Amino acid sequence: MKTQTSPRRVEMHLLQEDLARAHCRSKLNDAEQNRRFHLATQIARAQKQAERATRRAARASAKARLTLARLV
Prior knowledge:
This protein is mainly alpha-helical. The chain is built from one helix and no strands. The protein has one helix at 7-71. The longest helix is centred in the middle third of the chain and has 65 residues, at 7-71. The relative contact order is 0.05. The mean pLDDT is 93.
């Protein structure tokens, strides 16, 4: 004996699949947004670190020039 599925049952199944896909898309979008935010904060942190290193190098260079000037 063959069982038939009602159109309503098929419709409910498709609705559940659509909801599951929408949920997955939402999760993927959230993950992508979080990844971009994390990347942006990493870039900002690296830029600040580079600026600090530049300032330290400039101070060290100035100190070296002063020391050399005192020796001459």
